[in-house]
Amino acid sequence: MTHAETHHDDLEHTVRDMVGRLMPPGSAGAPPDPDASLADLGFDSLRTVSLLTELERALAVEFPADQITATTFHSVRTIAEAIAALAPDKKGAGDHD
Questions:
Q1: d(CA 64, CA 86)
Q2: Using CA atoms, how far apart are residues 86 and 89, in angstroms rounded to an integer?
Q3: Quick one: which of 36, 48, 75, 89 has the most CB atoms within 10 Å?
Q4: Cα separation of 36 and 62, whole Å?
């Protein structure tokens, strides 16, 4: 596995954990499928904004306004890809809490 693949996997794991923690009460306890739609997981706009702010804080990134879209925040995988593009040298900082 290359460094880039490991980095992406770390980001995806971090995003997946955060999504799992922010899922609405009564949701399945298992971490979500990385391709599952956040809407299908019970995320509304307020929950998505909470996820955005948590990700920015934990990973020390800032999403530009043009990246805060339904496409970017569609799934764990699309969010991890966006973060990787924003901060290619960042690791899963949230794993070190």
A1: 9
A2: 9
A3: 75
A4: 24
